Amino acid sequence: MTHQLSSPDFHGEEKEQVTSIGQIKPELYRPKGDQGEGKQGDTCGKISFLLRYAFNTEQLVVKILKALDLPAKDANGFSDPYVKIYLLPDRKKKFQTKVHRKTLNPVFNETFQFGVPLNELHSRKLHFSVYDFDRFSRHDLIGQVVVDNLLDFSEGSGDKPIWRDIVEGTEKADLGELNFSLCYLPTAGRLTATIIKATNLKAMDLTGFSDPYVKASLVCDGRRLKKRKTSIKKNTLNPTYNEALVFDIPNENIENVSIIIAVMDYDCIGHNEVIGMCRVGSEAEGPGREHWAAMLANPRKPIEHWHQLVEVMSIRACESMRVHLCAFTMSTYAWVLSRGGNHHTSHDTILSQYLTHDTILSQYLTHDTILLQFLKIFCDIQILHIKVNFINIHFI
């Protein structure tokens, strides 16, 4: 049994030629809800905007003017702020300003329009989220503003700036959603994942957009067996693909594999970055498992689902942690057993010996002190168990 298995390394991806549906064998063949409005806290700056309602076109017109006295999120004493706005409660349409580098007092002067009937205006709220842009990790939420009573603003001319305090808050990672279908042909042993579109993707570039493509990897026991890609869509957070990615999977193996689907941001200079991921398979969580089960229950029929994208580490941890902990469990027992009741054996000795060979588990433990303490306790239990057995054997 091989123990040094890991999940696909999407972060370390080199430049690769992206294939489209033209290279795929031609013969084959509602988005999730709220992300949470956040937990309100202290104020952290102010934001100014103009607001008016265009009765003839039934458009709510919002002009974001500027922000003042934002908190510094970066080590240089500044932030790289931008603003997202959308209407509550459905959040179906979202806009985003450009990123302003190294400033705590950004001037935006950007105008956005929401189509909303007048008779619905009283039930809507306008939500502003101010973020600090980070190219290599999750963007930090600086704070939020919620504006209600929009009907009151419809009667004004919209030329008087409105100021609101930005309230500190927390928010779940908002990476976007991916829509794709799965279709399995048991006789042919072929699975087709048709990537349809993505919405509300995280902006990876300073322009406020990304250059997204989708990468699908067939995985078994943490090993990437095959991979497929879509074409790249430039300067968009809402790409449409309608491209088929095909995998040959014999019917007897279909229960043992899963597919990790990553939405990537193409970078012509540096490494391509992961925007977000999802996983489908019999051992996936929640929607990923349900989608897979529906596909297997309806052979030869495309089953379409929306999937919320999650951060890369949550997928990689689920995919490989079980393998490494299982290997550690077996190796620890064998290692302690080989030394019998040796009183010099300790959890520190066991961990240091094992982790020299399993660098991936070692990396996990570097960032997870709770897991480290758990493994130490596990080692102590194993040592005690072996010692008791040896005492009983010698006594008999």
From TrEMBL:
One term of GO molecular function: calcium-dependent phospholipid binding
- Asked if the Swiss-Prot or TrEMBL record annotates the protein with the keyword tRNA processing, the reply is no
Q: Which residues form the C2 domain?
A: 43-164, 174-307
Record's compositionally biased regions (Basic and acidic residues): 27-40
Region (Disordered): which ranges? Answer: 1-40
Where located?
Cytoplasmic vesicle, Secretory vesicle membrane
Q: Name one GO biological process term.
A: calcium-ion regulated exocytosis
Primary localization: membrane
Q: Which family does it belong to?
A: Belongs to the synaptotagmin family.
Question: What name is this protein filed under?
Answer: Synaptotagmin III
Q: What is the protein's species of origin?
A: Neolamprologus brichardi
Could you read off the lineage of the organism from its UniProt record?
Answer: Eukaryota, Metazoa, Chordata, Craniata, Vertebrata
